[in-house]
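subagent[fold] <- orchestrator: predict structure for attached chain, return tokens only, no commentary.
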Amino acid sequence: MCIRDRPYAQPGNRHRDAVSDLAAMFELGHRADGLLAQALTHASWVHENQSAVTAARQRDNHLLAHHGSHVVNHLAAHIRVRQALAHSLTPDEDEARILTTSDDDTARLGATLQLTEGLLTSRGESGQRRTAMSDATQAVVAAAWRIHGPRLLRRRPAILDDWLTGLEHQHDPVTILATMATTYGIDHEYTYDASGPDHLKSFTAKTRLQDSQGRVHQWTERLPGTPGKPEAKKATAEAVLDILATPVNGAIDDLPAPERDLLVFLLRAQLDGLGRPTERQRARMLARGDLGTDLLTTGDTEAFLAWAERVRLLLGPDGPAVPDALCELYRKVLDDTRIGPGSLLRRMAAAPGPDAASVVRRNATDAVRRALSNGPQAASVRDIVQDWWRDQAPATGVTVRDDMRQDVFRPLPVHLGALDETLTWCGEAAEAAGTRIDVELTVQDGTLHVWLGLDKVDVRAACDDFARLLSRTLPFTDCLVGDDHVLLRLHGDLESAPLHPLATTGMDAYVSVPLDRRRLTREVADGPIGAQDVQPYS
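subagent[fold] -> orchestrator:
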């Protein structure tokens, strides 16, 4: 232990307990008691307790926090790189972005670590300010690094690991607004107004927006206190983005007239300025939730229809017609999500190695691709079940309970493919385990429920990847896995009234097959390497 790193003789119970808890959490033993004491020493406490600090040959946490800021950024970068490489060896620009942590981030970690309890501060300093908490947090991490070194990259407390994993390496609102404006051909610039004396000067930022049709709108957001130029600019950009997101949360009726006018301007600007975005631009549009794309790609069609209705009410009957570019955008973002390079289907298809789990994932992608690209020729659900029963019954005991009665269920063509592949997948699992399979068919509120009971089968191991992939890739399809069963839910045509053009455009894209059907069919025919070697029940 360094000669300057001694714990205090009489620090108080809360400080001593905090040092002890942190030492245990980071597996430091007593080697770092002096360093941890320093990490929890605020400069204000040193000023009022010189004798105690001198006796312990200590100092405040300023230098340790400076070291810790570099350690924290190093840990965050290490986690970020591992996350990106686990996804792809060629991460895109957004995945490869690594930003430095902010005082807000580290202060939040300090609050989770409950450092306020043990932080030594003066009578006039509570230790709860963002800067004080951030410095203490970074100093604690530096103390752990000085003991463990790079070992902290591999082993660290769960609290620290969760915090590092949850860091958002995102652009700030100013950059997000600039990217959005570029996508839709919107010119924008900022001007500033200052008020107050020099030592208390306060700024407001005004953004001037001009869309591709030449329409102009301006917006200013005012902050309390004495914000500088960066804070004022960030507040204005953030306000514009928040107003643009309003139709998703349904609060448009409560919007004051200025916010409503800005929202109408932005929606018209997006519809009029939409061109042919690249794949990277489409990914950013999804991340921002532009034009309801995020609602469609996650399958939240009810939320999409609600969003489209609110937009229709905002723009009125004389609003812009739905451009062809929007039809193409919806189809392409859905293709990106379902079968694109970053899709779950493509990631599972690329599962490396000959181990059983990897082969199951590759086989699952084959099955889902078949369901998506070339469903069976049978005309109805009962035809699918009967054909499967004829093939399955000789090898495996099968019980089918058809409780559909006369309830109306209008399947999409892709639904028949999903049903066929699910029956086949579960039937092979039952056959491999030498057990029977029970099937129950019911229809409730236009949704077909197919319950498949699998006794003596590790259903989660055999079916979880397939079910998750099926649900993520196919429209109006949910596949859920229990301990002894698989439940397939196929949501039929829920349309009860004619939809207006914007809603129709989105829903037509949602139920469509992939744009590049030939490519998908070719991938199914080729199959992944090793897919023939192990069956999906392995």
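orchestrator: received. Logging for downstream: Residues 383 and 521 are 24 Å apart (CA to CA). The beta strands are 187-195, 202-210, 216-221, 398-403, 437-444, 447-454, 477-481, 485-491.
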